[in-house]
Amino acid sequence: MKAIVGVKRVIDYAQRIRVKADKTGVETVGVKMSMNPFDEIAVEEALRLKEKGHVKEVVAVTMGPQQNQQILLNAMAMGADRGIHVLTDAPLEPIHVAKLFKKIAETEKPDLFILGKQAIDDDSNQTGQMLAGLLNWPQATNISKVEVEGGKLKITREIDGGLQNLESSLPAVLTADLRLNEPRFATLPNIMKAKKKPTDKKTPEELGVDVNPRIQTIKVDEPPVRQAGKKVETVEELLEGLKKLGVI
């Protein structure tokens, strides 16, 4: 099997998010960037399937500006065999990414897409579902376990009521949840080797995908500051306070 994994460059999860002074978006200048954590999990799972002999090649794909090359190198340092970089400075929406993945699938002929269930910058949780729809492939989202048996996928996914067990044929689209695995660290020798791995560069125009924005951001504001709580001594005082706030 050939597996394609998507890797996105986002603001590092440990950074404090700041809104630009002109309210047009989030400040990224001088801010530490890293691979989307759910995408790291997706890469790790593809590598584990390769180590078990189910996958022969893992291809990492990133989409965005030149700076995304570092994220692609990180994925290859973890163990991905090669990379594809769709170069664009345009802000990509989930539908754009799904269409670009579909075009890549037409030439790469993968058996499996493993994506993060969502990116931590927009929390859209849409790309995997859209891609499966465009490809007309079976999908399993928010997966916490996957095994290959008899040419089929045995999948466990997390739902509100507990765990759901699924069986899927191939090819398929999977999106990784937090508890699927613990991603490995890239070692220094592997980081050096990653620089020699092949990377194919493409553009949306070459792939025939229109990435003009469908959504216009009017204004971005920080969330309101949370007010301090108040301690009460009795249940009666609590109820009285809730009534004053109009909660009950």
Q: Can you walk me through this structure?
A:
With 248 residues, the protein is α/β, with parallel strands linked by helices. The protein has one domain (2-221): HUPs (Rossmann fold), CATH 3.40.50.620. Helix content is 29%, strand content 26%. The strands form 2 sheets. It has a 9-stranded mixed sheet, sandwiched between helices. A two-stranded antiparallel ribbon has the order 2-3. Helix 2 links the parallel strand 4 (57-64) and strand 5 (82-87). Helix 3 (94-108) crosses helix 4 (127-135). It is globular, with a radius of gyration of 21 Å.
Tell me about the largest β-sheet.
Answer: 9 strands, mixed
Radius of gyration: 21 Å
Number of helices: 7
Number of domains: 1
Indicate the CATH architecture: 3-Layer(aba) Sandwich
Spans where pLDDT lies below 50 across 5 or more residues: none
Q: What does the overall shape look like?
A: globular
Structural class: alpha/beta
CATH level-four homologous superfamily name: HUPs
How much beta, percentage-wise?
A: 25-35%
Find the CATH topology: Rossmann fold
* Average predicted confidence as pLDDT: 94
Keywords: Electron transport, Mitochondrion, Transport
Subunit structure: Heterodimer of an alpha and a beta subunit.
Subcellular location: Mitochondrion matrix
GO molecular function, one term: electron transfer activity
